[in-house]
Amino acid sequence: MSISTTSIEQLSINAIRTLSMDAVQQANSGHPGTPMALAPIVYTLWNKHLKYDPANPSWPSRDRFVLSCGHASMLLYSTLHVAGVKKADGASEPSITIDNIRNFRQLHSPCAGHPEVHEAAGIETTTGPLGQGVANSVGMAIAGKWQAARFDKPGYDLFGFDVYALCSDGDLMEGISTEAASTAGHLKLSNLCWIYDDNKITIEGDTDLAFTEDMPGKFRALGWHVVEVEDANDLEALDAAFTEFKKTTDKPTLIVVKSIIAWGAPTKANTHGAHGAPLGDDEIAATKKAYGWTYDKFEVPAEVYEDFNANLGARGAEAKSKWEADFAKYKKENAEAAATWSSIISGELPEGWDKDIPTFPADAKGVATRASGGKVLNAIAAKLPGLLGGSADLEPSTKTGLTFEGAGDFEPGTYCGRNFHFGIREHAMAAIGNGMALSGLRPYVSTFFVFSDYLRPSLRLSAIMKAPVLYIFTHDSIGVGEDGPTHQPVEHLAAIRAIPNVAVFRPGDSNEVGACYKAAIELTDRPSVMVLTRQNLPTLDREKYACSGNSAKGAYVIADCDGTPEVLLMGTGSELSLVIQAYEKLTAEGVKARAISVPCLELFYEQDAAYQKEVMPCEVTARVAVEAGIQQPWDRVLGFQGKFVGMSSFGASAPADELFPYFGITADHVVEAAKKSIGS
Amino acid sequence: MSISTTSIEQLSINAIRTLSMDAVQQANSGHPGTPMALAPIVYTLWNKHLKYDPANPSWPSRDRFVLSCGHASMLLYSTLHVAGVKKADGASEPSITIDNIRNFRQLHSPCAGHPEVHEAAGIETTTGPLGQGVANSVGMAIAGKWQAARFDKPGYDLFGFDVYALCSDGDLMEGISTEAASTAGHLKLSNLCWIYDDNKITIEGDTDLAFTEDMPGKFRALGWHVVEVEDANDLEALDAAFTEFKKTTDKPTLIVVKSIIAWGAPTKANTHGAHGAPLGDDEIAATKKAYGWTYDKFEVPAEVYEDFNANLGARGAEAKSKWEADFAKYKKENAEAAATWSSIISGELPEGWDKDIPTFPADAKGVATRASGGKVLNAIAAKLPGLLGGSADLEPSTKTGLTFEGAGDFEPGTYCGRNFHFGIREHAMAAIGNGMALSGLRPYVSTFFVFSDYLRPSLRLSAIMKAPVLYIFTHDSIGVGEDGPTHQPVEHLAAIRAIPNVAVFRPGDSNEVGACYKAAIELTDRPSVMVLTRQNLPTLDREKYACSGNSAKGAYVIADCDGTPEVLLMGTGSELSLVIQAYEKLTAEGVKARAISVPCLELFYEQDAAYQKEVMPCEVTARVAVEAGIQQPWDRVLGFQGKFVGMSSFGASAPADELFPYFGITADHVVEAAKKSIGS
After folding, report:
1. A510 and A585 share one domain
2. What pLDDT score does B6 carry?
3. Interface test with B, best of A204, A409, A480, A620 (most B CBs within 10 A)
4. Residue numbers in A near B177 (CB within 8 A)
5. pLDDT at A83 > cutoff 80
6. Which residue is closest to B466 within chain A, CA to CA?
7. pLDDT beneath 50: ranges in chain B
8. What ipTM score was computed for the predicted complex, to two decimals?
9. Which of A27, A527, B47, B116 falls 20 to 30 Å from A145 in CA-CA distance?
10. Which keywords does this Swiss-Prot/TrEMBL entry list (chains A, B) (predicted)?
11. Which residues of B carry out catalysis?
């Protein structure tokens, strides 16, 4: 094994290694082997190449580093510590202290088992579920390309940045990573560099047990430039590889680095035993001896901090200060563009962003909410310059194209476009959305509701990361019709409502669509899910029924009786009109009924108790919920006496008009259920 | 475009095309373009190559044909019709009649919008959600290889078969297909052939919008043999390609076929407008003219039936009858092996299959249910020869390895093994499981519970297809501890319970593990999900508490008071012992409490009302449910007065022992909740 390094380089690298080993040992839990193997890569990247100012970790034009193999979290924490990354822009406290590292994997430590994005500055995304980080990195690279294309002017190179992602066998075995790599190759994202830790070890043993791809060949076929480094300890080769990436201007780069897990550990190196368990005190002592490491546990020699300060720190400070000067000049010459960019990056909604949201006249024949959704989306996007996105090859069906002048397509060569063609790659699409959101944009992604299953792991991460990705899912029930059970969502409303920190909107007519989009855009610390129909829905007469303005409260009384109702009828989406019809029938029969529209259960549950009781009085226990999905999310408001009109099985292939009666989802059944509930 | 064909070949191909066009037009819904383009491929494969007896569509050793691009369903229905496939082995009625085709996409027609496996003989799997069919085909190829390796004897070639899957751009863009292809390449599944319809058209337009991979290069890098056919109408080239597949004995084969969507349609050929909408009467008339087609709508000339009968039919009948003769001879010489194979394929459980399921002595320190699960799984697998499976690179953690003598690994060269190394490819793993189950085996697949999200679309298809795949998910809650929120399931119990036709088991101690495995194996028409802990759980003293035998009823009273209880305490998995502790504390305080173990909510809801009321009497409305997941699935049994002790947010990174109190999941909180519920 060739090792070409000065002693200070080796010392810094070993500081990252030993901090990682010590922390895992102290926690008695974690993954020491990968940090030990990959410290030279991270050292070379951060200290020699990354455009990053440790004093300003939120600088929008910084290069991004993503640790996709999140289980190697100590590699990141150790690096952030020795690199002197600060807690916030201009702060004096470090982002990660030695005490934080001593408390690795303990309650309230920012050094969580896997990196969590808001826990400490310098953590660019939450990783751990394999494949997500590399896919996030594609979204970040897109954000860099898009900002550069949209805002750089001749003579300025202000808004772009490079994105590096370090990944493992596990990342690259997951299907999402091929989807993401295929997308990046297609888009020729030359600002994207993945570094593949080719260590031949997985949890079950040697990768030969399950994984024998020609990785360079595969990536070349996906349109990538590939560089191979034979030894993770060869700093010159690593340096040359990063230089080659920077020189490659027409495609993304994969650097394949052969490494030895737990490098330097006398008995555990190159074994899967070093993957996910502490090395043990004896092995650590022997490894430190092999490194020539003479310092105490958790000790970092002063020279290491100085090394990073003299390289990464000095280079970053200079780059940041040049950027500030250039941006000031740019601002003078391009006041409007600068203001637009600043507004996007701030995440604030500009004055009047919602003023063109259309209203829809009452119309019994009505309009599909996917269609009104498309109109509302366009009206908002025209005012909100950071709102951009697309569909997984279903734009003509989901109606999510931005059609106003200047919207354009995001394609190789036209990186300023706002319409994305994600291809039939739902999972990567959502993870790319996360990467775009983490870069300050407001992405939306779209597919048929049933295929939300394909992207669920990334939606969960939007929720964990509080990333305001807007998910637009159309074709939301058996209303899909002829395509049949594989294409008809039944359990998906329940399943997505189950995820903490997601707001699921299912508007009941086109005016609710407008109100729900407004509410969703205003939620900046969580993903929103917009669930829309394929089929036409009547646009309700809002002179006769309550206006849709209270949609943001999650539920509101849309039609009511005098005095205390005998029964509450509640519904969402395409079933809201059945609720209204049932309300009218019951009222005509002299039954005192209240109709409640429930476009967002989560937001309703977040209202104060007084509002909740106002809408659904505790004393009214006769209740009916109507939704073309399963019952589970409604039990909380139904109690033992309530009845449900909806689905309890998969759907069927037939015209939609026949399926609703076939599955008993009709106004007459709602009336019947109401009477039963009153009588029980 | 070169067309080399005899007139009868062309007539048969055009019969498939015109039936498909007519059916889509009649339904006014569906996908005509792909059947028109690919009819020559299916014709060549079925009539010239497939080992398939139309009179015996369930013959276990038939070659399998999977239409992965399920939206082209009419291609399959038309083919099954003209090929004379019968409704069942030996039946005289056809599987698909012209009337069925006339009722394409109508309620109760077996010709559903997408192929549904149990709707008609000859449909090998349910397809539509893209990428699933190709991944199923890997499972089927595995089943063929495994049966051949396990049961063929020198001089016999009885149990193997080939598997063909026809797939689209959409299939191959989905990440799952790369996972599946990588697995197949690694395993050198030479009995597997994918045919890729390279038509350059997707819904949003030309594939160049989003998809510019070098597909042959990619598949070669994945270990496949690649054959290219320049023209889907070149029957000689297609014939040669299938012959080349059959000659390739060391790897799977991809045949890339360039096609023109809606071939022959004068104005709609080669446009995405022909993908998902009827052609229209005029275009159909013009297309039929271009084909030289002079027959009526839905008419099939007698020569076409004769063509298939003379080729596919004669070849299939001969092969099947030779197989019968050979098998009879084999049976005489290898009675035990023949009986074992027949028993596997019948799906029946052999006498005494469950007799070695271990019981576990009471033990306060206890054992993790993943550990007892591994023991139970081994005890069953040793008696159930068709039970086989593995993990997505987590076997040392999920404890799902089969360790008894003769279990072995399934690897290239040792296809008789029963332990699979699926790699870090959860999604393909589950879809492969579906393919294995559809081939008559009893597969299990395994990963951490949180990563059930990665395979959810395939789990949904297990449920739709009634495929008895056993999902073993360990590390089932915040009990995961230090790995943190990305690795801690919170919403997953709710989300999987939401899927119709799935049984979710979460056993509360090791003896419930045994009872739940027994119940799961006995469910042969649905997938079962086994949810197991990472951490130790006390093994309850079943002398003191009720035995676990009623686990199969979903819920049972495990400890009770005299007379009518004041409060019902119910829980699952790791929280069952908290329920018991709370029961003891309340009892000691003089509160009349009943403890209920609920290992499977779905099975409990399927019991008759009398049993449900016996366990949870209606009049007892003070109730507490305890589960380290979200509340949603419990509302149905809690009503307005019940209380829930569980999770309402994502977890955190810390030792598990600290997390349960941190999130309020303790016996004391259960006691407190019980008192509140009684008091409210």
Report:
1. no
2. 64
3. A204
4. 175
5. yes
6. A650
7. 1-4
8. 0.97
9. A527
10. Calcium, Magnesium, Metal-binding, Thiamine pyrophosphate, Transferase
11. 426
| Average pLDDT of chain A to the nearest whole number | 97
Interface mutation target, options A108, A116, A482, chain B, most CBs of B under 10 Å: A482
Radius of gyration for the alpha carbons in chain B, expressed in angstroms and rounded: 28
pLDDT at B239: 98
Residues A154 and A293 reside in one and the same domain: yes
Chain B's closest residue to A480, CA to CA, is B113
Rg of chain A over Cα atoms, rounded to whole angstroms, equals 28
* In the predicted structure, residue A5 carries a pLDDT above the cut 80: no
Chain A residue with CA closest to B421: the answer is: A210
B151 and B258 in a single domain? The answer is yes
pLDDT value of residue B203: 84
Which residues from B are below 8 Å from A105, CB to CB? Answer: 482, 484, 653-655
Contact A29, A39 (CB under 8 A): no
- Per-residue model confidence (pLDDT) at position A571: 98
Structure tokens at B439: 């081939």
Could you tell me if residue B464 is inside a domain? yes
The mean pLDDT value for A209-231 works out to: 96
Which of A203, A395, A648 faces B204 most closely, judged by CB atoms? A395
- The answer to whether B425 contacts A497, with C-beta atoms less than 8 Å apart, is no
Task: Write down the pLDDT at residue B544.
Answer: 96
Q: Which residues contact B470 (CB under 8 A, 6 or more apart)?
A: B389, B442, B443, B444, B445, B520, B521, B527, B528, B530
Q: Report the domain count for chain B.
A: 3
pLDDT digits (tens, 9 = 90+) for A356-367: 999 999 999 999
Q: CA quadruple A137, A202, B130, B210: dihedral positive or negative?
A: positive
Pair type for strands A556-559 and A536-539: unpaired
Whether A394 has a binding-site annotation, put simply, is no
pLDDT at B273: 87
pLDDT for A6: 64
* Of B125, B558, B205, nearest in space to A486 by CA: B125
A189 annotated among ligand-binding-site residues = no
- Structure-token pair, residue A219: 């990536």
The pLDDT tens digits for A436-494 are 999 999 999 999 999 999 999 999 999 999 999 999 999 999 999 999 999 999 999 99
Please tell me whether residues B152 and B123 are part of one structural domain.
yes
A457/B182 Cβ within 8 A: no
- Chain B positions in Cβ-Cβ contact with residue A636 (cut-off 8 Å): 631-632, 635
A674 shares a domain with A596: yes
* Rounded Cα–Cα distance for residues A372 and A362 (Å): 13
pLDDT greater than 90 at residue A513: yes
- Specify if A343 maps to a domain: no
Contact A499 B491 (CB under 8 A): yes
Catalytic residues of A: 426
DSSP class of residue B277? S
Domain that holds residue B642: 548-679
Contact residues, chain A, for B170 at CB < 8 Å: 393, 424
Strand, helix or coil for residue A480 = helix
Cite the DSSP H helix spans in B404-509.
426-438, 452-465, 492-497
Asked whether residue B187 is assigned to any structural domain, the reply reads yes
Q: How far apart are CA B632 and CA A383, in angstroms?
A: 38
Q: Which amino acid is at B14?
A: N
